[in-house]
Design brief:
With 329 residues, this protein is mostly beta strands. It has two domains: 104 residues, SH3 type barrels, CATH 2.30.30; 211 residues, Autotransporter beta-domain (Lipocalin, Beta Barrel). It is 3% helix and 67% strand. The chain has a twelve-stranded antiparallel barrel. A five-stranded antiparallel sheet has the order 4-3-2-1-5, with no helix packed on it. The radius of gyration is 26 Å and the shape is elongated. About 4% of the residues have low confidence. InterPro entries: DUF481 (IPR007433). Keywords: Signal. It comes from Shewanella cutis. This is DUF481 domain-containing protein.
C-alpha cells in the first residue's frame, strides 16, 4: 500500500489549510491569539490546551472573541445547543449560527441534554468554639446535597447539634432544609422551600415553614452565585402544650464564590422575615463562612451563625462559631 502521508500534506498546503487552523482559537483584548483545544469555559475562566504547553486559564474579562473547529455542547442562556462558534469583530461577542451572541451568555458544557442531572455535595463534622468555662461537649454534623439540570435545582441540607454541660443535655437539635429552584432564564427563578427543626429536650418543640416566591440571580450559572429571593412564608410552632401559626414576608440572599482556582470558597446565607403579627418585629437567620481545600475532596471550614428574634416583649439572640472538617463528593 503506498504511503499517503506526503500526499495528504501536499493537499493541505495546496488548499491553504495549516495545522494551526485545525484548532480552537481564542482572541484576547490585548491582541494576543492562542490556539489549541478548549477544555472548559465557566463563569470565570476559559481553559485551553495548546499543543506546545500545559493548559492555560484565561479570565473571561480578557477575551475579545473565540472560535471552535467542531460542534460541541454549549449552554447558551441556559439552553443546551450543539453548535460550532465563529469569532466576531465585535468586542465581547461570538457568532453562533451567524448571530451575534454575547460571550457572557456562554458556558461550555459536558452535558448531553438539557435534562441531564448533576449531583454534588458535602458532609462535615465540626466543633463549637464558643467560649465556655464549664465541662462542655458539643457535636455539630451537617450534610449538603445538590441535584440540578439546566432548569431545575434541588438542594437538601441537614444538621445535627448535640451539646452537654456538666453531663446535662443542653441541646439536641435536628434540622432539615429543602429548596427547589426553577430557573426561568439566566437571571430569573422561582423558589419553593421547606424547613423543619426539632429541639429534642424534655419538652420537644418543633417549628417549620413553607415558602414560595420569585428570585433574581445577579451572577453565576454554576458554582458561583448571588441570589436575591422574596417569599411568602407560613410558619408553624408546635409542642405538646400549644400550636402557634403565623405568616410572614421574607427576603433571602444566597452568596457563594470561589477564589484562587477553587482553593478557597466564601459563602453567606441571610434571611429576614417580617411576620404579620404586631408582637414580633422580625426574625433573622444569618450564616457566614469559608472553606479551604486541603485536597480536591477534603476541606477545612469556619462558620459563623447568628439567629435573632426581635419582638415588643423580648429580644433573643443565639450566636455560634464552628470549625469543621469536611469531604466534598
Amino acid at each position: 500500500m503506498p504511503n499517503r502521508y506526503p500526499i495528504l500534506c501536499m493537499a493541505m498546503l495546496l488548499t491553504g489549510v495549516s495545522w494551526q487552523s485545525l484548532a480552537d482559537t481564542v482572541l484576547l483584548k490585548n491582541g494576543d491569539q492562542i490556539t489549541g483545544e478548549i477544555k472548559s469555559f465557566d463563569e470565570e475562566h476559559l481553559v485551553i490546551k495548546p499543543s506546545y504547553s500545559p493548559k492555560i486559564s484565561i479570565e473571561r474579562s480578557a477575551i475579545k472573541s473565540f472560535e471552535t473547529i467542531s460542534n460541541q455542547h454549549w449552554s447558551i442562556n441556559r439552553t443546551l445547543q450543539n453548535v460550532s462558534i465563529q469569532s466576531s469583530e465585535l468586542d465581547g461577542f461570538v457568532l453562533v449560527n451567524n448571530q451575534q451572541t454575547p460571550i457572557s451568555d456562554l458556558v461550555f458544557s459536558d452535558r448531553k441534554s438539557d435534562s441531564e442531572w448533576r449531583y454534588n455535595g458535602s458532609v462535615e463534622a465540626a466543633i463549637d468554639v464558643t467560649s465556655n468555662t464549664k465541662n462542655t461537649q458539643k457535636l455539630h454534623a451537617k450534610s449538603d446535597i445538590t441535584a440540578e439540570t439546566l432548569q431545575w435545582r434541588h438542594n437538601l441540607k441537614s444538621e445535627v447539634r448535640y451539646e452537654t454541660e456538666e453531663k446535662t443535655t443542653k441541646r439536641n437539635t435536628i434540622e432539615g432544609h429543602y429548596s427547589l429552584d426553577y430557573l426561568i432564564s439566566e437571571h430569573w427563578l422561582v423558589r419553593q422551600e421547606d424547613y423543619f427543626q426539632e429541639d429534642r429536650l424534655e419538652v420537644p418543640i418543633r417549628n417549620y415553614y413553607a415558602a414560595l416566591g420569585p428570585g433574581f440571580r445577579f451572577w453565576g450559572v454554576g458554582r458561583d452565585k448571588l441570589d436575591f429571593v422574596v417569599t411568602y412564608n407560613h410558619f408553624w410552632l408546635e409542642s405538646q402544650y400549644f400550636t402557634y401559626q403565623l405568616n410572614a414576608w421574607a427576603t433571602t440572599i444566597n452568596y457563594k464564590q470561589y477564589w484562587f482556582d477553587g482553593v478557597l470558597e466564601t459563602y453567606a446565607d441571610l434571611q429576614i422575615a417580617f411576620p404579620d403579627t404586631p408582637t414580633i418585629d422580625y426574625i433573622s437567620d444569618v450564616t457566614i463562612g469559608l472553606k479551604y481545600l486541603l485536597t480536591q475532596q477534603i476541606y477545612l471550614s469556619f462558620k459563623y451563625d447568628i439567629n435573632e428574634t426581635v419582638s415588643s416583649a423580648l429580644n433573643t439572640q443565639n450566636i455560634n462559631y464552628n470549625l469543621g472538617l469536611g469531604v466534598n463528593f
